[in-house]
Fold this protein.
Amino acid sequence: MREVAPNDIISQYPVDVSKLKNARTPIIIEDDKPVTTGSNFFDIFIYIFPLFKLYTIMNYKKPYNFLKNLPPKLNSFYKKKSGLNLIINNKSKSNKDFDPVTNFDKAFEKYIRSLIQKKFSNDSIIGEEFEDKYSSNNYKWSIDPIDGTRAFVIGAPTWSNLISLSFQNKSKIGLANFPDLKKYYINDKKKSYLYKDNKKFILKSSNNNNLKTIKIIGNFHGTLSYERQRNVIKKFGWSFRLAGFDALNYCLLAEGKVDAVIEANLKPYDILPLIPIIKNSGAIVTNWRNEPAENGGNILATSNSKLHNKILKLLKPFANK
């Protein structure tokens, strides 16, 4: 992880699409016109191609700047609301399970939705606490207002605000903001960053692929039986540690402090904001079947492709159960 100055330009975004200009048409007498078989198609292609690019290439600059400016707003919002009483409800339909939601979850999501709606009114929005908003374009925002509600409820500082933008169902840019830890993680088109104490760090995952020395953390969120959990953990021995750090697990992976994260039963909004942060640090993230992680489910994130393939083989007996 390399430290750079806070005011450094993060990257250039070569996505400005050329605007069409009026062609200069020479005057040609009808009899002097040469035969131009196929030229009409070529001319149409020249004009249409920039428009095609306009609607198929994501522009990172505006959403990146929007997400980059969110942490101070979210932290200020949290500070203003912190004096309120904490109201906790159980979303679970089963009396045996506890899936907490608080008035802070809902307040955060309403606030984030309002900011997105103001800047990107034509985009879709999905979130944990309210109904999804759909649109006809290819852009979709995802919100997990408080990832780690259990941690939030007991006063642990590892909870976060997770927001992302997907283009054509692929997560492209994400933000993981940790108000109590006073830091946030974000990515642009090429790299991922940690901002902490007014300093910016470029994130780089580790290259360790030795199963005997790697550090693995994870959480099965109560979806696997004790027997299955024990069998999964047994595959990795002392390398595996159950840890309930939620999104922070994946951020530590992007920092190179952890080599693998194994989790079960994640919702799309749990993982969508973390996917591009993970990938742009050099790490890999899929489900246990080596499929794209955007739909959530059982997730494997590793620091490099060699390690990823090794762990996928170990998880294969559990992937289809």
